[in-house]
Amino acid sequence: MAGTNPYIQQSRTRLPQQRYRVTFRLLESGETHEVVVEPRSLPYQRSGLPGSLLDIALGNGIELEHTCGGVCACSTCHSIVRQGLASCNEATEDEEDQLEEARGLTIQSRLSCQCVPDGSMDLVVEIPAWNRNLVKEAPH
Amino acid sequence: MSARLLAPHVRELTLAAPTEPFSYAPGQWLSLHLPIGERPPLVRAYTLAAAPQPLGELILCLDRYPGGLGSVYLFDLPIGEEIAFDGPLGRFTLPETTQEQLWLARFTGIVPFRALRQQLEQNPPSTPVTLLYEAGSEAELIYREEFQRLAEQVPWFRVRFLVSDESAEARGSPEPILAALPDILRGRTDVAPMVCGTNRFLRPIREYFRSLGYERRSIQYESYD
Q1: How far is B43 from chain A (nearest CA, A)?
Q2: B28 vs chain A: nearest CA distance in angstroms?
Q3: pLDDT tens sequence across A51-95
Q4: Is the minimum CB–CB distance between A113 and chain B shorter than 8 Å?
Q5: Were A75 and a residue from A11, A101, B132, B210 both cysteine, which residue would form a disulfide, CB within 3.0 to 4.6 Å?
Q6: Is the CB of A96 inside 8 Å of chain B's CB atoms?
Q7: pTM
Q8: Alpha helix (H) ranges present in A51-100?
Q9: ipTM > 0.85 (yes/no)
Q10: What is the spatial distance between Cα A73 and Cα B190, in angstroms, rounded to a whole number?
């Protein structure tokens, strides 16, 4: 990686047209944050796909690990979408490749940087406690 | 820290050795924590542009993209500043294979290959390595002389440079590489491909190899968008 993304690929995602709610449960700290997503506020354009869970979290002051900067190059933003997964874009093979490196993988697992809800449902998202540690254990 | 320009908008940064012991494999990247943005740190990933150095310096390379928070900050970063980082990370490292390797890069996608090349210079492979490297201008073929020199010195390394002379809108296209691949491969399906660039560049090239019968996971890749 060289750290720039000058040729951003057209996203296959659909941004929400209506207000919806995301509840983030941070299992490491035990904190719960509820965010009301207003379509006009998206994207926050900090990291991850526009309108992604990572974009929403960071844009609302919820610090999720995202070691690669949100470009689908690591698994540190692993999240588990307990509710509302059907309203999210489908995971690509690239995302699935990265997810395989995540600990505690479930069928509801996504990378927060790649998971973009369309706003048709409210979401409940768990952030596993061990995401941070996995980074340190990457083979090198 | 020191810096040099590799192209008008490409800067190489050499960071002094970290205060704590640090090791990495060529091809890996660092997660930089930059003190910028509305809610610092801004996290951005940059590949190490060299194999481990004798004195432990870390070398990064970045393209200044207008409006890109991280790249603009690093491009203008004064000498002497400190940078916080995490890592090393990534699996774009030399494959454990006896297959001939085919490296495909566009523009700053050459960065991890520079580190991998240095690794192989220290421990030459038993099978050939071929690099196909494309950019939109001669100036953007960064590190070109190093690769050219090696190709002239050793039998195991070959390189072909492509200058696509594209319009700005077409930059990032995989077409020049895709057009050159049949001549490089000549019907072979037994090389080990490694590809680095943007997803716009990577994905069609991966699909090309899959159309030749390659398993998806046998195509090593690294994207940066």
Answers
A1: 5
A2: 8
A3: 999 999 999 999 899 999 999 999 999 999 999 999 999 999 889
A4: no
A5: A101
A6: no
A7: 0.88
A8: 53-59, 93-99
A9: no
A10: 27
